[in-house]
């Protein structure tokens, strides 16, 4: 039902030659003293309309597939509730005309994503992985929020029009200085890296495959994983305003593509392999954005999303498909050997293999360089607070200190 | 006859409103099911 009016808008735009249609639904919160107005504003342009049509088509296909795939499953209704949350989030994210609208729906996508990874909540691993993904998203979203605040501070509003200048996509020009563009751009790049699982956040991508296959397809094969690239496309004028930012975007994209390519070749399960193959393509898309090939990046997103959705939906029946194909051609499928790998010395090959198999040590790096320092700071703050409250009350100030921890659950957590 | 801006507005409104409405309907349905479920109620009202 959403798809038809979206196609209607596309046809109207083509017929009338209008390439930018803003639609406002008024303020949904305003702080007059601070001159803050959070507006519901949606924009229909050459970026948002193709993306929203793509999102609605793929969501429709995957929804239809899931009706049979999860038929009589215990969490059938829960899946569709979370899925509808995702559809709303991705639709409004694609059409968002202000950064706060985008942030709100970016969060909906993240929330539904983490809850769907933990869909099989009777098992421990999906829940742990869902929680981990949620934590990584928090980190990236904090960066997004800082970027949004900085944008408000610089322009007095969160409207993309006031931030990236007037002009239809992709021909806008940044309304801020080069240094400010670099600051905001780096924060948004970090947010995009978290959402699109670019380096160094790639560790969560194979963990996300714990969810049901349809949600893996629509989230990590097609739409959610491209949302970071979409954000970069939306703020493309600020990328152009700073060459340092462009270099950072290209470098991040190429490094992610290289890592994804190495890791996808050595995974032992098809969904993880596809997840890293997605990362490779998303890395290339991000590099394209950094080079300024915006239309190419948009077409790449659309083609890649469709292909990867198909591959992930067929992943559970991959062996059967291979057998059918071999029966049809009457011979074994040829072994696809990588000729480039043959040129590398054996020691280096082994090292790369181990590196790829261990998923680039991304989780380890994230844990020891980011999570551990945070934990140490919080533990230190907790100790200081306890000393202070103990001193104020002249006795142990926390009732929880007197309670013996449940040994079994403590061991499980450890 | 509806003007062009009006058509854009209403088409845009429907594109956004349908997914939001879907969330509202399924969310409300889930809440009703949750509150009607004896298992859920007993989980909160009876001691373990």
List keywords for this structure.
heterodimer; A: 414 residues; mainly alpha; 2 domains; 70% helix; globular; B: mainly alpha
Global mean pLDDT of chain A: 87
* Major sheet summary line of chain B: none
Helix-strand topology string of chain A:
HEEHHHHHHHHHHHHHHHHHH
Which oligomeric form is depicted?
heterodimer
Helix content of chain B: over 70%
- Report the C-alpha radius of gyration of chain B, rounded: 20 Å
The computed structural class of chain B is mainly alpha
Categorize the overall geometry of chain B: rod-shaped
What count of domains describes the coordinates of chain A?
2
The N- to C-terminal Cα distance of chain A equals 49 Å
How is this structure best summarized?
Chain A is mainly alpha-helical and 414 residues long. Chain A has 19 helices and two strands.
Structure description:
The complex is a heterodimer of chains A (414) and B (48). Chain A has 414 residues and is mostly helical. Chain A folds into two domains: 3-313, no CATH class; 362-413, no CATH class. Chain A has helices at 3-16, 48-69, 76-95, 99-117, 124-155, 160-164, 178-195, 204-207, 213-222, 227-234, 236-240, 243-266, 270-291, 294-314, 318-329, 339-342, 346-357, 362-393, 407-413, and strands spanning 20-31, 36-45. In chain A, strands 1-2 form a two-stranded antiparallel ribbon. In chain A, a hairpin with a 4-residue loop joins strand 1 (20-31) and strand 2. Chain B is an all-alpha fold. Chain B has helices at 4-36, 38-45. Chain B starts with a helix and ends with a helix. The mean pLDDT of chain B is 76. Classes of the chains: A mainly alpha (414), B mainly alpha (48).
Furnish the topology, listing elements before pairings:
The complex is a heterodimer of chains A (414) and B (48).
Chain A: H1 3-16, E1 20-31, E2 36-45, H2 48-69, H3 76-95, H4 99-117, H5 124-155, H6 160-164, H7 178-195, H8 204-207, H9 213-222, H10 227-234, H11 236-240, H12 243-266, H13 270-291, H14 294-314, H15 318-329, H16 339-342, H17 346-357, H18 362-393, H19 407-413
Antiparallel strand pairs in A: 1-2
Helix pairs in contact in A: 1-2, 2-3, 2-9, 2-14, 3-4, 4-5, 5-7, 7-10, 7-12, 9-13, 9-14, 12-13, 12-17, 13-14
Chain B: H1 4-36, H2 38-45
């Amino acid at each position: 039902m959403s798809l038809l009016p979206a196609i209607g808008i596309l046809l109207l735009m083509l017929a009338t030659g209008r390439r930018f249609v803003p639609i406002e639904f008024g303020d949904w919160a305003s702080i007059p003293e601070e001159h803050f107005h959070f507006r519901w504003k949606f924009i229909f342009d050459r970026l948002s309309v193709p993306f929203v049509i793509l999102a609605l088509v793929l969501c429709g296909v995957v929804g239809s597939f899931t009706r049979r795939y999860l038929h009589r499953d215990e969490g059938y209704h829960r899946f569709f509730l979370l899925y509808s949350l995702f559809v709303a989030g991705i639709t409004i994210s694609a059409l968002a005309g202000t950064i706060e609208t985008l942030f709100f729906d970016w969060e909906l996508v993240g929330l539904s994503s983490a809850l769907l990874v933990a869909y099989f909540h009777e098992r421990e691993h999906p829940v742990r992985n869902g929680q981990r993904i949620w934590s990584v998203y928090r980190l990236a979203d904090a960066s997004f929020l800082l970027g949004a605040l900085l944008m408000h501070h610089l322009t007095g509003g969160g409207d993309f029009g006031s931030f990236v200048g007037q002009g239809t996509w992709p021909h806008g020009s940044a309304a801020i200085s080069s240094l400010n563009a670099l600051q905001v751009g780096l924060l948004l790049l970090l947010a995009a890296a978290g959402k699109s699982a670019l380096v160094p956040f790639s560790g969560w991508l194979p963990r996300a495959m714990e969810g049901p296959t349809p949600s893996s397809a629509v989230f990590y094969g097609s739409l959610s994983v491209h949302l970071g690239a979409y954000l970069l496309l939306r703020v493309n004028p600020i990328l152009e305003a700073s060459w340092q930012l462009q270099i950072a975007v290209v470098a991040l994209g190429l490094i992610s593509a290289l890592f994804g390519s190495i890791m996808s070749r050595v995974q032992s399960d098809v969904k993880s392999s596809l997840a890293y193959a997605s990362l490779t393509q998303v890395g290339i898309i991000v590099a394209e954005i950094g080079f300024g090939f915006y239309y190419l990046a948009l077409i790449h997103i659309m083609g890649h999303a469709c292909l990867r959705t198909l591959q992930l939906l067929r992943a559970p029946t991959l062996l059967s498909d291979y057998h059918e194909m071999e029966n049809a051609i009457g011979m074994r499928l040829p072994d696809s050997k990588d000729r480039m790998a043959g040129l590398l010395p054996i020691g280096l090959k082994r090292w790369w293999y181990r590196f790829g198999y261990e998923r680039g040590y991304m989780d380890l790096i994230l844990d020891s360089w980011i999570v551990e320092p945070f934990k140490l700071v919080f533990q230190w703050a907790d100790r200081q607070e306890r000393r202070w409250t103990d001193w104020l009350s002249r006795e142990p100030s926390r009732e929880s200190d007197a309670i013996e921890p449940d040994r079994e659950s403590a061991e499980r957590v450890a | 006859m509806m003007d062009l801006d009006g058509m854009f507005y209403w088409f845009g409104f429907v594109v956004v409103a349908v997914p939001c409405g879907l969330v509202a309907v399924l969310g409300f349905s889930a809440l009703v099911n949750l509150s009607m479920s004896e298992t859920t109620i007993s989980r909160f009202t009876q001691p373990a």
